[in-house]
Amino acid sequence: MPHDDGRKALRRAIDDEPPPGVDALDDASAQALATLIEDSRHAQQRQLQDALERALGYLPRLLRGPVRRVLFPRRGD
């Protein structure tokens, strides 16, 4: 399949089979789309993290630590 690398990248980016219309894209375009999707998800995660951190500023100081630990648990704890 000529678009196999691009399709694999898209499959990883969306964690599913790409829609049928993606077959019309050449490999470079499919790769670019996968990169855009991944970059968008990372940006969205950063924005969500920033918004949650700003929201913590509205809580009394004594509650910020416990709420932060509930919202952002460390891996392995």
Distance between the termini: 45 Å
Low-confidence sequence ranges? none
Number of helices: 3
What's the story with the biggest beta sheet?
none
Coarse structural class: mainly alpha
**Helix content range:** 55-70%
What is the domain tally? Answer: 1
Estimate the global geometry from the Cα principal axes: elongated
Strand content: under 5%
Q: How many strands?
A: 0
The SSE string, one letter per element, is HHH
The average pLDDT is 88
**Integer-rounded radius of gyration:** 19 Å
Characterize the structure shown.
The protein has 77 residues and is mainly alpha-helical. The protein has one domain (4-71). It is built from three helices and no strands. The chain has helices spanning 4-14, 27-56, 61-71. Helix 1 runs parallel beside helix 2. The mean pLDDT is 88.
Brief overview:
By secondary structure, this protein is mainly alpha-helical.
List the helices and strands and how they pair.
Blueprint: H1 4-14, H2 27-56, H3 61-71
Helix pairs in contact: 1-2
Key phrases:
single chain; 77 residues; mainly alpha; 3 helices
